[in-house]
Amino acid sequence: MEHDGSSDKSERETHDDWDTTGNDNGGRLTEESDMEQSDEMSLGPLATAYVEQSAEEITEAGEFSQVETVSEENKGLIWSLLKQLRPGMDLSKVVLPTFILEPRSFLDKLSDYYYHADLLSQASLEESAYGRIKQVLRWYLSGFYKKPKGLKKPYNPILGETFRCCWLHPQTDSCTFYIAEQVSHHPPISAFHVCNRKDGFCISGSILAKSKFYGNSLSAILDGKARLLFLSRDEEYVITMPYAHCKGILYGTMTLELGGKVTVECKKTKCFAELEFKLKPFLPYSGSVNQISGKIVMGDELMATIDGHW
Question: What's the chain's Rg over C-alpha atoms?
Fold first, then answer.
């Protein structure tokens, strides 16, 4: 470290302290400890032991699972946070209080959308292009119900951070693998790859997470596209994501909703699906939350309309 031009003085001083106080031999390691240390360093990184969840944890349906009640002691933290903000400001550089943070990384959060990847295994077996895009939409909507209670934002991953996991599918005796990496810090970009070669599909893409503050509300925008490929058919589906909208920050009840239009498109089969995630109307009792509407088109022909709650 003494010859490292990028090391600062504090690092060198810390290194000197280790040399003089690290052990009883004047900072020199014995041969035995040298050997033990080299043996330990030669070992590869240990993986976290997999523990299967006996029951899936999900919150109750409806708007009450997307409401956050702020305690009196935390309101002061929110006010001090709001003093740093201006309308239209990007929130990526603002330090958020821990009580609105979900205790996991954004890379982990992205894996929720592939929790039911077995639906994609079914989609690859569909003979008709219309049947395949219907199954793709089923899988797409299955990724939104798994969420923590209240308003929770996952932690920003550090540059170079990775997250891996997999899902076992007993029906097809296959496994879907997931790996994600934080490839940029400013702006924050997360890249991911999902693969199940036995069942014939893989997904890759990157997400730029942006957020905007509007006064009493803020929006979290996932800017990017996922590309789903059915390997045996050489079909690629390009998929976009909705944005998350939080309102009631200064006054009212803090509520989280999804909004915006998303598309699923396959140029080879000329299949196109559009979904609109609708925000709750401004006037009370004029509509319910979590509504979606959409359509599936093949070429110029309208094949189906979609209506309901995500």
Answer: 24
